[in-house]
Structure formats: structure tokens, C-alpha cells
Amino acid sequence: MPDTTTVTTTYVYAVGEDPPPDVPDDLTGVAGGSVRLVREAGLWAAVGGVPEDDFAEDAIATRLEDLSWLAATARAHHHVVDEMGRRAVVAPLALATVYRGDGRVRQTLAERAADFVELLGRFRGRAEWGVKVWAAERAPEKPPARAASGTEYLRRRRSALDRTSRDESADHAGAEELHRAAAGVAVAARRHRLHAPALTGRPERMVLNGAYLVEDADRDRWRAALAEASGDDRLSVEITGPWVPYSFVSPDPPAGEVT
Amino acid sequence: MSEVRETDRGADPLPALAQREIALVDLLDRLLAGGVVLVGDVTVSLAGVDLIRISLRALITSISPVEPASGRVTLPGQDEGAS
């Protein structure tokens, strides 16, 4: 669907440097729109047309609060970024970056060319990896029924609380050790928020949600460092990636810094 | 690019990885907090789309909501540090 005659809303997924890669013919993005390239100033942007109604100023704020719309948009956005990321070094754009027509995209590429070149240089030969660490669920506390006395009840209760607190600090220490190990071999490290089981769908407690920018050449060494740090049986480690470095578009704090 | 891989501690600390669909929460961690922010023609405040609010929504719409901790006997002065 060429849209050369009318000004439409142009959604930008990712930016890279020339020469541009081929865009797969069947690649579709947000709202099922096809993906094309807009080129300017030695850069290309992967873009697609989106329905103006969904992305108008007042509509989009409401839309983004609709979980099913947000989920579909996030997956479509990621799909395009990821596919382009397999073919070239790319800088991923924030979700729902839209312009009134391709001309405005060209203008922005020209204005921000130096920033993009710097960022793309930082991403070359590197990928983001995620590490989530989960602490196993504890055996449920024994019900404090039939305590012989109030004193006995208090003693049991206190000891249960002590045990919980000891376990939690051990989990925390284990997670910190894994983070340090992962950050130690990474170019940069970031920590995302820890999420509740309602959001993760796992009953275990999340104790680390880290992102690490790792040199492709160091991939095995990075995994080995994590494996070596995985000492505690109560913790399980989940690695995701490679990701286009979404978490590292802003200037990085030194790797290993505990944030 | 994003093969998502899962691992559990076993005999091999980081065994062979099984592929599965990317978790929405992993995506949102990255897409809501990451990516290059350009001033587009429509300015969207993604800060308003908070994962906490999404998680609340997920809780509310969850088919099997988490049981609230009920029936717990609490004595005065014994609830500090319990949460």
C-alpha cells in the first residue's frame, strides 16, 4: 500500500547506518503495516504506516493503557526491531515514535545523525542479554496452632521470622553475586525493576532482573562467569537474549556498578 | 535475534537452553524503559504507562487471583518485619 500521495502517520522502529539491509518482503509491524526504509544523512530508518486514529495525540495515551493493545503493539514493534537487528547494527526507537509523514523522519535523521552514529558505534559487535534470578518458594510456615502457651507461641513466631529473614538475605546475596559476575564481563549493566508473581506468572520471588551489554566475542566467557557464580541451589537463573540493546541507549554507568 | 532461553540449576549450572515465546514483561521492561527517545510529532508520555499499573490490571483480570493471606494470627507487636 504505497502512501505517496497523502500525508500519513509514519511509525519509526529502528535506525541504522548505510548500507541498509534488505527488508524482508513479508515483514509486517504495528497494525499489520508493511515495513520500508527511509534514508537520509547516511542513515536509514525502518518505518511503517499506522492508522492515524490510533496514533493521534489524544488517542494514543488511552490506547497505551489498554493492556491488550499495548501487548500487541510491543510485540509488533519488537518483531520489526529484532528482524532488522539480525541483519544490521540498529538503534531501537522508543515504543510509539510517530511522525507526520516520511519527510519529518528524514528531517529528524539529519538533525540527530551524530547521536545515532555514536550510539550505533557503541552497539557494533555487542548484544544485550537479560538475566533473571528467582528464589525458590519456601516451605509454608507451620501454623502456630496449639502452642502450649503465649510464650511458646511468641518463640515459634520469632524463630520463623528469623528464618525467613535469613533466607531472604541469602537470596539477596546470591543475586548480587550473580549480578557482579555478569556485569564483570559486560561492557555495561542495567537493572530493571523486580516484578511480582502476578506479572511474571511464576510463583517464585524475582530477586534479580538485570540487562548486560556483552561483546559478541565474550559471549561464552560471560556465560561461564554466570555459571561459575551460580552456587546457590535455591536460586534459578533465566537468561534471555540476544536482544537488540534496548536497555543501553542512554549513556552507560560503568559496568559492575550496582545501581 | 531474540531466542529466549531458559535455564534451571541442575547438575549443569547452565544447561542447554529451551526456546520459548518472549515474556511480555521482558519486552515491556525494555520497550517502556529503553529505546531511543526522539521528539516525534505526537508526544507520548510513556512514563504514564507504568508497569505497576499494568501488573495491577493483570492481577485484577487474572483468572485465578492470588489468595490473600488470611487467617493469620497476629499478636500485638509481632507483625513488624513480617512483610
UniProtKB/TrEMBL annotation, chain A:
It is found in: Gas vesicle. It comes from the Bacteria. Residues 140-174 are annotated as: Disordered. Its main location: other. Residues 159-174 have a biased composition (Basic and acidic residues). Keywords: Gas vesicle. InterPro entries: GvpL/GvpF. Belongs to the gas vesicle GvpF/GvpL family. This is GvpL/GvpF family gas vesicle protein. It comes from Pseudonocardia nematodicida.
Automatic annotation (TrEMBL), chain B:
It is found in: Gas vesicle. Transmembrane segments: none annotated. InterPro entries: Gas-vesicle_GvpA-like, GvpA. Keywords: Gas vesicle. It comes from the Bacteria. Its main location: other. Belongs to the gas vesicle GvpA family. This is Gas vesicle protein. It comes from Pseudonocardia nematodicida. The lineage of its organism: Bacteria, Bacillati, Actinomycetota, Actinomycetes, Pseudonocardiales.
